[in-house]
Each structure stands twice: as C-alpha cells, then as structure tokens.
Amino acid sequence: MTKSIVCLQPLTSQQQERIKAAAPGYTFTQGDAKNPDLQLLAEAEIVIGWAKGISDTLLRPESSLRWVQSWSAGIEKLPLDRLKQQGILLTSGSGVHAEPISAVIFGFILLFTRNLHTAVRNQQNRIWKSDGSESELFGKTAVIAGTGAIGSETARIAKAFRMKTIGVSRSGKPVADFDQIYTTDRLSEAVSQGDFIINTLPITDETKHLFNATSFSAFKEGSYYINIGRGATTDTEALIDALNRGQLRGAGLDVFETEPLPQDHPLWSMEQVIITPHSAGITDQYADRIVNIFTENVKSYLSSGTPSLNLVDYDRQY
Prior knowledge:
- The chain is of the alpha/beta class.
- The protein folds into 2 domains: 4-95 and 284-304, Rossmann fold, CATH 3.40.50.720; 98-275, NAD(P)-binding Rossmann-like Domain (Rossmann fold, 3-Layer(aba) Sandwich).
- The protein has 11 helices and 12 strands.
- The chain has a 7-stranded parallel beta sheet, sandwiched between helices. Strands 2-1-3-4-5 form a 5-stranded parallel beta sheet, covered by helices on one side.
- Strand 10 (223-227), helix 10 and strand 11 (248-253) form a beta-alpha-beta unit.
- Helix 1 (13-22) runs parallel beside helix 11 and helix 5 (98-113) crosses helix 7 (149-160).
- The chain is elongated and about 70 Å long.
- The relative contact order is 0.13.
C-alpha cells in the first residue's frame, strides 16, 4: 500500500514541497476540508487537519491512519475517545499562536491601561475628554493561567514592561520569565495578586468553568480579566456579575461559551469590556508555522515511529 499524507487545509506550492522533501517515499495530496475525498482519506497514513463527516472513514477498524496533525492548538472538537481507542497518534498546533495572541493580550492591556478604548469611543462622538485615570504597566502584576507557548511569550513581553509575572499551571514547574508559579489548586491565591489576570488555558474536564464566582471573588478589586484561551473555561454569568459589582474594572474577551456571541448578549453593551471575534490567533504566518511543526515531526516519526513535538496526552486532553 502506498504511504500517503493528505492535508485538508490549503497550502502554497512551496509549503507542499517542504512536506514532500521531509517525507521521502510518501505521496502528498492536497485535499479540501469543505469537500473531503473519502476514498483518498481511506488510504491515508497521515492526515493534516480534520473535517466534518470523515471520522467513520478514518477510524474504521482496518484504517491505514496512524497519525493526525491537528491544524489548531485546541483539539476538543476532535473525536478524542475514538482516536485514543484506535491508537492514533495526535499532535496539536500548539506554539503557532504565541506571537499573534500575545500581541492581542497586550493590545487589551494597553487599551485598558491608557484608556484607549474610551478614547476611541470619544473620538467617534468628537468628545475631548480624559478622566485622569490613565496608568502604566511598570510595577503591575500579570497573573497568567497557562504557562505554555502563549503564556510564556506573554510573560517575556511583560518583563519588557517591567511587570511582575505569576504563572498558574497544572504542574507548578518553574518556567523562564515567571517570577513565581502556582499550581492550579492555588488559583485563588494567585489571582488575588494580579492587576491583570490572563487566561490562556485549553478546555479540559479540569478547566471547564475554572474561572467562576469563587475565583472571581478572589480577584483584586479593580483588576482586569483577559480570556484568549477557551470560552468554556469561564462562567460567563459569574464574569458579568464581577464586572457589574466592580470587582473587575474591565475584561478583554476573544472567546466565549457561545460563539458567535448572540447580538442581544449583555457583554456587548458593557463599556468596560473589549470584544474580539475569536480572532486572536489569526495570522498570515499560520500555515508556515504548522508546516514547521509537521516537518520536524515527520523526521522523528520516520526515525522512531513517534512525532517529537506537541504529542497529545489523551488522558490530559492536551
């Protein structure tokens, strides 16, 4: 049987050639996630990306599939139980988003710190006004939930602003550019110190509604909450209550429990909230970075049978 790689996301000819060069002996086919060729996928050993309606073809008992390279960092929409049962290797796109998402995080932070969000609204109404509450980042504390690629890049940038950095992670292990790291069970203790609390977490059974009424009540009064991880990690009603009570001075939100955010949702009308449409990770360099991950993984897959980067632990769900 021919060794086959099928990519379901669009790649340039140059990106395709890079994959072919990294995987000698394999055929490479550019597929289409919107109109997947099931006959082609039925013979694939490696698939890049995923699509609706392909699970039964790829995960049948006699399937040739051995490895899936996710197109995204988040893998919660994939049939994880079936992939695990079939013994399929799964690698994520973790690390692809570090640069664009950290830029959005600091976009939110700087808008709030310098009141630029209200300045834009005032400009639309030709109002010359400042309430004098502008501040700066020097000496402020950023608490970053999630110390992976995005959290680490955010901490590195925070240090350039001479901020204190506190991380929250499952393991609590030290990571560069963090002054201190707490384990997740000490989340309330960590967030109580933050001027900006930044959520970069994936959605797992453990992180669902991790930010809830209890954790928001531990926030420093007048702090800001930023969520660019996954919407379901946050109890939206508890967030709105914390904003209305003034526990939070503002929130920068790129992800939501329901997407698109309904037009009648109360978050839209809250002037202390900045909303982006789950676009923080979008970048014109996205495909190049996925190809970088994939070609590096192909080397180790061909030599040892296992990809070396971003291998998903099905039990941890990331």
